[in-house]
Amino acid sequence: MTDAEREQQMNEQEEFEGMENANQAVAGYVKACLALSGKAKKDSVNPHFKSGFVSLESVLATILPSCHENDIVPLQEIIKSENGISVRTTIYHASGDRLVLEPIPVPVDKNNAQGVVSASTYGRRVSLMAIFGLAPSDDDGNAATDADPAIARMAAIAQAITDHQDTCVAIRDAIAEDDLGRGVEAWDELTDDEKISLWIAPSKGGFFTTNERKVMKSEPWLSARVIE
């Protein structure tokens, strides 16, 4: 295995682990998004096009208060790529959970330090605006906007997990202890609609990990249901 292949494998494993431990991070992220207005104030002017734009400072000033209120912080890495750089954002929760997002590629116009810094700043602000559903605005950004459908779905998932936290934890503990009968009993206490709302992949904010979901679809799990 080459160094490049090894690095790619490590990055993929890191991203997988980030998704597997994203529950609290996703919940905090959704709450932070819902508290935002959907707008970021244009506070800078492009000298070439004479047009206003939202600076990185304005984006951070918009999102960080809401992030901190919900115990999350977005950290961004600058990664070298074939045609420039990529910006990868990871949302960390105070609990230690994290949500690793796909890197956003950014071309570098000038092959020098200034070009890399410029591309990094651009990539950071654009990715944060996309992640937190922000649009440029000429006003102070306090006007309410309709919630993004994707954010609304994530909010529903987070609410379902909150409403059935005890049941979800009981199922997780039962699987960890290989007591599938107890896990099935807890799962079957939920209605079909509640099961659907909780049966979400971890990469989309679901509570159960990939391995736990495999167990819940396995023959031993189904057999435990029949026995019960």
Report on the architecture of this protein.
There is one protein chain. Helix 6 (165-176) runs antiparallel to helix 7. The chain has two domains: 3-144, no CATH class; 164-227, no CATH class. By secondary structure, the chain is α+β, with helices and mostly antiparallel strands. The chain contains ten helices and eight strands. A hairpin with a 4-residue loop joins strand 5 (84-93) and strand 6 (98-100). The strands form three sheets. Strands 4, 5, 6 and 7 form a four-stranded antiparallel beta sheet that branches. It has a two-stranded parallel sheet with strand order 1-8.
Topology summary:
Elements lengths: L2 H18 L2 H13 L3 E3 L2 E3 L4 E3 L2 H14 L2 E10 L2 E10 L4 E3 L3 E4 L5 H19 L3 E3 L11 H15 L1 H12 L3 H8 L4 H7 L11 H7 L2 H9 L1
Parallel strand pairs: 1-8
Antiparallel strand pairs: 2-3, 4-5, 5-6, 5-7
List keywords for this structure.
54% helix, two-stranded parallel ribbon, elongated, 2 domains, 17% strand, alpha+beta, 228 residues, 4-stranded antiparallel beta sheet
Short recap of the structure:
The protein is built from ten helices and eight strands.
